[in-house]
Amino acid sequence: MEPLTEHRLVSGPVVYGFLRLVRVSEARQGALVASLAEYCRRHELELSGVFTDREASADPGSAAFTGLLDVLALPNVYGVLAPAASHLGPKTIAAERGRQIEAAGSRLLLVRRPRPASLPGASRGTALRRGCGPARLLDAES
Q1: Residue 21: what are its φ and ψ, rounded to 5°?
Q2: Can you state the angle between helices 91-103 and 63-72, rounded to 10 degrees?
Q3: Model pTM greater than 0.85?
Q4: Which of 93, 108, 114, 118 lies 20 to 30 Å (CA to CA) from residue 124?
Q5: pLDDT truncated to tens, each residue of the chain (142 aa)?
């Protein structure tokens, strides 16, 4: 009798992490990377790497984000995983980065879903972004 699929090593969809860590301790960075890894373990995703933005720049095209966009062009990449939307940067930069992630054909997954108060009219699993239509957000409680 063959073992069940759950008992075989099967790689899940490939995701890349993205962290914005401006003046953050190594312990905090380690905890955030661990939260990404745990999310992937629970949701059967393969965390292939983590890009870290350490710049407090007003430019959405940081070296880390440009590298992330480069790997999103690879075949079989499912999406980008971040602890929270704030890791994409301030609101205007985060909105632009979200558009670029979607334009690359990838999904944005958040470990911590946005607070309902900050997203009026949003239903579970859908968030409204300013200047944009609904975007599909997948969270740890799905």
Answers
A1: -125, 85
A2: 20
A3: no
A4: 93
A5: 555 555 666 678 999 999 999 888 999 999 999 999 999 999 999 999 999 998 877 677 899 999 999 999 999 999 999 999 999 999 999 999 999 999 999 999 999 876 665 544 444 444 444 333 344 444 444 4
Tokens of 19: 């962290």
From CA 130, how far away is CA 119, in angstroms rounded?
Answer: 10
Q: How far apart are CA 123 and CA 125, in angstroms?
A: 6
Enter the DSSP assignment of 11.
-
Instruction: Give the Cβ contact number of residue 55 at 10 Å.
Output: 14
Class of residue 39 by CB neighbours under 10 A (exposed 0-12, middle 13-18, buried 19+) = buried
Answer yes or no: are the C-beta atoms of 93 and 60 closer than 8 Å: yes
89 vs 22: CA distance, rounded Å: 10
Q: Are 113 and 87 in contact (CB under 8 A)?
A: no
Structure-token pair, residue 104: 């690359």
